């Protein structure tokens, strides 16, 4: 990957950190001042946490894409619906036709580590020169660094710091 890589991740520790709300807030702030920020973030519940069942929300249109499948109460398996995720990633692929100033990809996690999820879209956006902001759970930090070739910026869970990174990328 290029040394000009404009890629950053907000590093978080647990699912009860409102990291998805932070993505929504940053996108709303930037769009509110006239910058075009687009992509996908987890749909939120009334407390600003990831909603259950899981859904992704298009940050420009508000459209939601269900990414959860009902496996029953007793299931211990991952409930991620690969078909719903594939449909949602169309939002990211469409950004290649009308590039935003900043793309938000809901997260880099287990699916991306295994070569699935939004992994291809991450690469396509970066190859197109579109800056990308995402979130990464601390337990996946090593795989994130391997994916980014050590070129990504790790951001703390801080609206001020994330906003500063975005401002720096948008001024280039």
The rough form would be described as globular
Beta-strand share of residues = 15-25%
| Strands, total number | 7
Order of helices and strands: EHEEEHEHHEHEH
Would you identify the regions where 5 or more consecutive residues have pLDDT less than 50?
A: none
Task: Return Rg in Å.
Answer: 15 Å
- Supply the number of helical segments: 6
How many angstroms separate the termini?
Answer: 19 Å
Largest sheet: 7 strands, mixed
Could you give the order of strands across the largest sheet? 4-3-2-5-6-1-7
Fraction of residues in helix: 25-40%
Name the structural class.
Answer: alpha/beta
What number is the mean pLDDT? 89
Detailed description of the structure:
About 35% of the residues lie in helices and about 20% in strands. It is α/β, with parallel strands linked by helices and about 170 residues long. Strands 4-3-2-5-6-1-7 form a seven-stranded mixed sheet, sandwiched between helices. β3 (about 55-60) and β4 (about 65) form a beta hairpin. It starts with 6 loop residues before the first strand and ends with a helix.
Brief digest:
The protein is 35% helix and 18% strand. With 172 residues, the chain is an alpha/beta fold. The protein starts with 6 loop residues before the first strand and ends with a helix.
């Amino acid at each position: 990957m290029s040394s000009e890589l404009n890629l950053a991740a907000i590093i978080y520790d647990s699912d009860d950190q409102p990291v998805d709300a932070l993505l929504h807030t940053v996108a709303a702030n930037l769009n509110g001042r006239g910058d075009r920020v687009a992509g996908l973030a987890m749909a939120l519940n009334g407390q600003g946490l990831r909603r259950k069942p899981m859904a992704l929300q298009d940050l420009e249109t508000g459209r939601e894409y269900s990414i959860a499948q009902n496996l029953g109460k007793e299931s211990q398996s991952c409930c991620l619906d690969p078909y719903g995720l594939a449909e949602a990633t169309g939002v990211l692929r469409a950004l290649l036709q009308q590039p935003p100033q900043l793309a938000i990809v809901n997260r880099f996690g287990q699916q991306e580590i295994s070569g699935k999820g939004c992994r291809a879209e991450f690469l396509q956006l970066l190859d197109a020169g579109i800056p990308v902001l995402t979130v990464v759970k601390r337990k996946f930090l090593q795989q994130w660094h391997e994916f980014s070739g050590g070129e990504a910026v790790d951001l703390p869970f801080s609206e001020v710091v994330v906003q500063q990174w975005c401002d720096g990328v948008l001024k280039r």
